[in-house]
Amino acid sequence: MTSPIDTASGGTSVLIDGEPGPRPSEAVKLEGRSPGQLMWIRFKRDRTGVISAYVVGFYFLIGLLAPLVSKLYGKNPYTVYADERPDLFDSAGVPVQPNGGISSEFWFGLEPGNGYDVFTKLIYGIRTSLMISIAVTLVVVVTGILLGVAAGYIGGKTDFAIGRVIDFLLAFPAQLFFIASMPVVVSLFVSPRDETPTYVRVVALILVQWFLGWMSLARILRGTSLTLREREFIEAAKVSGASPWRIIRKEILPNVVTPLLVQSTYLLPSFVTAEAGLSYLGVGIVEPTPDWGQMFSKASTELVMQNDITYMFFPGISMIIFIVAFNLLGDSVRDAFDPKTAR
């Protein structure tokens, strides 16, 4: 039931099922807008989402510009200050100055032991973790699209085969598989007697996380494609003689953008934490290459825990802020795409 009501601006709105609807002037503005434009309008109204987007963008910018920031700062994450300037450390390798050696010269202090600059190690660690996680997310999204949409639209034996593969892979305990398979994957590229290059570890991290990372997205896209293939516009495309590939490309894919974007915003932070966890356990990125998880591993050693608890502060806070911001961004993107969501 609808009824007119007066608004504060002097215009007239209506009550739709007890809720105030848009004023006529707003309704006119929304006419002719594409779904993407309407989503963008809804997203801009969400302050939490906008702030989270700025925070996430700042992290990506820091990671991208890490070499430039390091150059302007005048230091790099590879200099061993315990050897270069031993006067900054005591006999145990702990910074002499309080709070981990934080000063105007070393903004975030110095790492106990080797004495790396914490600030440059952190920004380069963000760069390393984000680059690996973005690569994993991209290959997972491509795999999920190819297999999920194919299973949902083609159906039959294709759907059955892909579904059984997904069920089989979902039975694997992901974290244990990551830990156990990393040395195996690395050994495929480098002999155990040789030192493993960083790029080999990066490739292994991407492959291992991809192997057990695409199934949830594929299942969601399969369900969406199953629903779409029964719609009238798909039947019309078939009647017009369009090939399956054209139907998938022109009709199915544009309509799975919503779940694809939403799930991608949840996948990337999960891959960041997975990559950091593997490095923390010593099967991911190792020194001297900076990495978030590697910093956590260093912070958990007895030397750091007993003598410099501030070392954990900066990488810990930075990761918490990033994960929370990205998850809030995912919620905002989901709400912006869902016209039934009331914010």
List keywords for this structure.
single chain, 3 strands, 343 residues, disordered N terminus, mainly alpha, three-stranded antiparallel β-sheet, 3% strand
What would you note in describing this structure?
Helix 7 packs across helix 15, helix 9 crosses helix 10 and helix 14 packs antiparallel against helix 17. The two termini are about 25 Å apart. The longest helix is centred in the middle third of the chain and has 37 residues. The chain has a three-stranded antiparallel β-sheet, with no helix packed on it. It is built from 17 helices and three strands. It is mainly alpha-helical and about 350 residues long.
Gross morphology is elongated
Helix tally equals 17
For the terminal residues, how far apart are their CA atoms?
23 Å
**Mean pLDDT score, rounded?**
81
Share of helix, binned: 55-70%
Strand content range? under 5%
Kindly report the spatial arrangement of strands forming the biggest sheet.
1-2-3
Radius of gyration: 26 Å
The secondary structure category is mainly alpha
Biggest sheet features: 3 strands, antiparallel
